[in-house]
Amino acid sequence: MHGQVSSLLCLRVWGERACFTRPEMKVERVSYDVMTPSAARGILEAVLWKPQMHWIVECIDVLKPIRKASVRRNEVGHKVSVDTLLTAMAGRSARLGIDIEEVRQQRASVILRDVDYLIHARIGLTERAGPDDMLVKYVEMFRRRAAAGQCFHRPCFGTREFAADFRLIEANPPPPIAEDRELGWMLYDIDYSGKAPMPLFFAARLQQGRLFIPAADSPELHR
Length: 223
What we know:
alpha+beta
């Protein structure tokens, strides 16, 4: 039962700006040329997520030419520590607030602009699915929510300030751009099955505007 997957579902997502940060860039934020699989899954989960199901992203179509822009953004260079939280939870005095005037940092970013993608994905069932949890139930639930523009929280392109619009595509999907491009090593997802979180990467290639995503058990994934 848990090995079953749904038919292919398509969600079109677009927005004015996006930043899918490359993890090898330590200080300045530089975006991948194309949306990452984990970012696509995050958008789908913003529309529908249940513990009994999970999303399997198969490919991402790039519908508009890849365009970049350099900007400077204000960021907060500090976060509340776990020790401070534990101190406050124990009833002792601790400063939980952050004064943004004290910790504000201005950083350069290379972002994407005027992005438009088509996400192709399937729904699978997890080990928490019961006998009454059928794939068709979650497929119809997603279709209704996506068609009505409903979401648990506003989907975004890599960061909350870059909001994404979305629309369900049932037929006649728009064609991707006619471009081939080597995208380099791209973050696939984070593996939490071990003692410590482990990032997974794959050699990403844009083939006639389409980014094919390897399966979770594919030998193409590298740690």
